[in-house]
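WARN no homologs supplied; continuing
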Amino acid sequence: MGHQRLGRIAKSRKWRAVVDGVMGGGGLASDDIGRIAALTLDAAGPALRNGTNDAVLRHTFYLLTQIALAAREPDWRGRLAGVGITLSEDASLFDLTVGLHTAVDRQARLAGYTSDLGEMAQQAAGEALAALAGNQATTLFGSGGEHLQKAIRGLSTRVGFAELGQAFFGRFLSRFLGFYLSRVTAQAAGSSRVPSVAAMSQFDAALEAHCWQSARIVQDFCGQWYSKTEYVEGIDSRNTSRFMAVALRKLSDELSQQRAEG
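OK structure emitted
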């Protein structure tokens, strides 16, 4: 089974602009993050647009929709088993994320490849679930299947899935941009721009926060699509793929607009 890697960005004018943005004089400030993120996406845009053809990425988001919908069902474990996620009666949130990863890996084997984008999506999906359902899945009385289902049920409404969508796309975008930016920040380590490991960590945290905020552009879109599509025709892999293409384009346009306004 092959692995589809994003590879290296050609040393183009757009990529040199990213390098100049990171390596320029003075320390990296919070005001730099939006500009650098937009420059990076401008240089790496083709790879992100190609993500709409990535079966692993698409399937990961499809499974997020099915996890949310399953939480509404009396036999939610049975519904999850139908999409390849097997849980025990006392499953924890960790078990759910493992089941998600296992189901995505199975899909990757069927597709005949794994991919960098798919791995980023898996990580983003698990982090999004943990961030939004983690506290509710563990109570003073412990954790287990009943607490887990109740926690996930909160993400099964239009508003809940809107938040889940923002969390997923924000983390995915952060990982995507960070994939490329890590090469530049590593080169800048020890310089006046990135003088220490702590400075690099602060930069990474600022990038993640910026991507999460930028993903607000798809928050309502995620909730409305999820609610309407499930009501009208049911959510399946085909309409999920169409949704992903639009959502990724909205994210790309948002960062481009931020650059223009900056």
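The chain has eleven helices and four strands.
OK
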